[in-house]
Amino acid sequence: MKYSFYGILLFISVSLTSCFEIIEDVTVHKNGSGTYKFIVNLSQSKNQIDKIRTQDSILQYKVPTTATIDNKITEVKTKLQGIDGISNVTIKQDHTNYIYNLSCDFKNVSSLNNAVHSIWKTYDKKAPAALTLYSYENGIFKRNANSSEVDHLTQSANTQIIEMLQKSDYTVICRFDTTVTNGNAMNYTVSPSKKAVLYKHDIWSTIAIKGKSNNNITVGQ
Q: pLDDT digit string (tens) for 32-46?
């Protein structure tokens, strides 16, 4: 048997009432360094996940134990600590409410891309060979989510999983030292201070629709 995030999602989706949230929070300073936070909040699906944990397997998928999850989290932390330009790595896990919070500092966006790619490869054997999710040059910050890189995930999702992901939220917050002056951030909302932008949409649209969360954001120098 094998462990599968989709196997667990399939079980949760039976009722089609459960949902969860992913939050990507990036702070970028003038020199390109910053802080990255990634939060997975499954607390709204707590009751379904509690049921999952009483079973050994679901639909031929192995249900991971708490020890297995902890070992995988430790593996992620160790990998991140070994990436050049990544520091202050912390991972907080709440196995009661199913909230998982990763935070790290990065020297530049190249280091951040390497960190995100490392995490992805830890959980997905079909992850792309390289990843350039973020870029920052001449005051332009870009988040480039290439949906072709997750085609293998979207193509394997059944109707129930798609419906559940459509009910779940993906939030991206980008924070800067200076104000946002321009950009084609049509899917982002600029904060009152104009030093942060917010993107919030359902998870399925975020990962499956090309260009949905792609944006150039110009910040003052």
A: 999 999 998 988 888
